[in-house]
């Protein structure tokens, strides 16, 4: 274990429950760029998870009873510590996840921004009074913390997917038990160490690692849990939703996407290429808002493909810690297998490889950034998320045709399009059945906006003042006899 950290005590090998470090180090965490073991974490099952939820439940009353300002101050302290340890957190993140260090630094800033925002928002969770139906009565609506939150998060954003949930939960007064992805538990545990140093009271923020099924089983059935908050695959999201039905828990799901990225004839082509690069190749194509299908209108198709291919050719593949690298390894063998499956299927159905198309000569899970043309609706990559560095370009003729094609999916998370005509911008912006639409931008994520999907991409929103809604219940008080 040789991570060169400024503060080595951020590297944890135990779980964080009830303000204490518990469990014994069992499961290896490996670096996808090298295969080296970089840490070890406990393998919790149902019993240990139940204990964590019990601890969170014991902390609930005290935490909820604090003034908003007290909660705000402690959450702000957590933010300050995340920023102060940005460099170490980024190195831990890259080492377990693979993304280039510059992207990891960006993720830490992005993750911290949710903690900062919700530290502020804690003071603005206001109720209301409504016009009453009786002269002798008043109607009050309180927004109260809903209870204990069980959160399950994925490996593609090991820090931000946690803070997006923990920030608003804790701000609203809800203790939270987080299960990070098995691939990336070390970032989560480092965040717990910093929460501890910030003085977040015991039991309010907990991190458990181990058996996904058993932990998920407890988080969806324990009577104290009121909200199951999940980011990950649609398949597991549906499973958790079914499990949560047993005790009628609220569920907030952020699931898979199949983002269309549309370039119209009137687009600024250079801007569109820049946006496509960010949207498609960030995190090696492993984000749920990554452009999955790139549609280019006939008038600019060839010019766009040429510019895109030239830009993709400049990407540099390697270990994320190396200077200048823009593409790290994919997370694991399963990820590589899916990319290869989609490529083989596409080329067998007529797609043409303009660039890349193979595993990278570095071996492991490195893959060549790839551009395809001649993509069509019959291909797997049109229906499923490829979650890898493959940019398939579809040619289209009309606005109506491309809106229909873009919406022809069970997913509805993010969509993007590039155009200048104001009428078209409104028609397409309103016509796309997606929770988020980037217009002349390939990057939409910010703590200041509500992030989330429609259709099978999930429900609920994370970020902005709307993000608090998942964590509060509205209680109606009728105050009569006045
Ligand atoms: P991916 O295939 O990208 O890893 P998953 O949906 O499988 O996406 O993983 C997202 C999160 O869900 C991870 O934390 C993972 O450990 C967790 N997970 C996987 N299977 C289950 C399950 N049966 N119950 C609860 N959580 C699960």
TrEMBL record:
Q: Is Oxidoreductase among this UniProt entry's keywords?
A: yes
- Which molecular-function annotations from GO does this UniProt entry contain? succinate-semialdehyde dehydrogenase (NAD+) activity
What InterPro entries does the annotation carry?
Answer: Ald_DH/histidinol_DH (IPR016161), Ald_DH_C (IPR016163), Ald_DH_CS_CYS (IPR016160), Ald_DH_CS_GLU (IPR029510), Ald_DH_N (IPR016162), Aldehyde_DH_dom (IPR015590), Aldehyde_DH_Superfamily (IPR050740), Succ_semiAld_DH (IPR010102)
Ranges where the Aldehyde dehydrogenase domain occurs: 25-475
For this UniProt record, the keywords arranged alphabetically read as follows:
Oxidoreductase
State the Gene Ontology BP annotations.
gamma-aminobutyric acid catabolic process
Q: Which residues form a coiled coil?
A: none
Q: Which residues form the active site?
A: 254
Q: Which domain of life is it from?
A: Bacteria
One GO cellular-component annotation of the UniProt record comes to:
cytosol
> Mind telling me which PANTHER family this protein's record contains?
SUCCINATE-SEMIALDEHYDE DEHYDROGENASE, MITOCHONDRIAL (PTHR43353)
Sequence similarity? Belongs to the aldehyde dehydrogenase family.
Q: Which NCBIfam families match?
A: SSADH (TIGR01780)
Please report the name of this protein according to its UniProt entry: Succinate-semialdehyde dehydrogenase / glutarate-semialdehyde dehydrogenase
């Amino acid at each position: 274990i040789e991570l060169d950290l400024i503060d080595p005590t951020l590297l944890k090998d135990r779980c964080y429950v009830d303000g204490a470090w518990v469990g014994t180090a069992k499961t290896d965490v490996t670096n996808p760029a090298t295969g080296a073991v970089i840490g070890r974490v406990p393998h919790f099952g149902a019993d240990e998870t139940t204990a964590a939820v019990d601890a969170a439940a014991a902390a609930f009353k005290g935490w909820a009873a604090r003034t908003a300002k007290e909660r705000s101050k402690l959450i702000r302290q957590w933010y300050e510590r995340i920023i102060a340890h940005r460099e170490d957190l980024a190195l831990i993140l890259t080492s377990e996840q693979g993304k280039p260090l510059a992207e990891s630094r960006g993720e830490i800033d992005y993750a911290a921004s949710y903690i900062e925002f919700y530290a502020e928002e804690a003071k603005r969770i206001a109720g209301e009074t409504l016009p009453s139906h009786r002269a002798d009565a008043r109607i009050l609506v309180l927004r109260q913390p809903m209870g204990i939150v069980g959160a399950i998060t994925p490996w593609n954003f090991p820090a931000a997917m946690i803070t997006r949930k923990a920030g608003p939960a804790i701000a609203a007064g809800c203790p939270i038990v987080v299960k990070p992805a098995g691939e990336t538990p070390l970032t989560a545990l480092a965040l717990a160490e910093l929460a501890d140093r910030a003085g977040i009271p015991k039991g309010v923020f907990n991190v458990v690692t181990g058996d996904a099924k058993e932990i998920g089983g407890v988080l969806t059935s324990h009577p104290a849990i009121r909200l199951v908050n999940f980011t990950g695959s649609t398949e597991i999201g549906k499973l958790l939703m079914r499990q949560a039905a047993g005790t009628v828990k609220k569920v907030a799901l952020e699931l898979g996407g199949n983002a269309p990225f549309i370039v119209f004839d009137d687009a600024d082509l250079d801007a569109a290429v820049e946006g496509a690069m960010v949207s498609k190749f960030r995190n090696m194509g492993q984000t749920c808002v990554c452009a999955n299908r790139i549609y280019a209108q006939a008038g600019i198709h060839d010019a766009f493909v040429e510019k895109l291919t030239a830009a993709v050719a400049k990407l540099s593949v390697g270990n994320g810690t190396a200077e200048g690298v823009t593409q790290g390894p994919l997370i694991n063998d399963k990820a590589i297998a899916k990319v290869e499956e989609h490529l083989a299927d596409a080329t067998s159905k007529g797609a043409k490889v303009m660039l890349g198309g193979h595993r990278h000569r570095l071996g492991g899970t490195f893959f060549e950034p790839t551009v395809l043309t001649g993509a069509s609706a019959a291909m797997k990559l049109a229906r499923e998320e490829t979650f890898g560095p493959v940019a398939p370009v579809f040619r289209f003729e009309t606005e109506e045709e491309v809106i229909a094609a873009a919406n022809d999916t069970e997913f509805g998370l993010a969509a993007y399009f590039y155009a200048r005509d104001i009428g078209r911008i409104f028609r397409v912006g309103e016509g796309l059945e997606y929770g988020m639409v980037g217009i002349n931008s390939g990057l939409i994520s910010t703590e200041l906006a509500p992030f989330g999907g429609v259709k099978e991409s999930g429900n609920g929103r994370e970020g902005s003042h709307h993000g608090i809604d998942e964590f509060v219940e509205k209680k109606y008080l009728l105050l009569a006899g006045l």
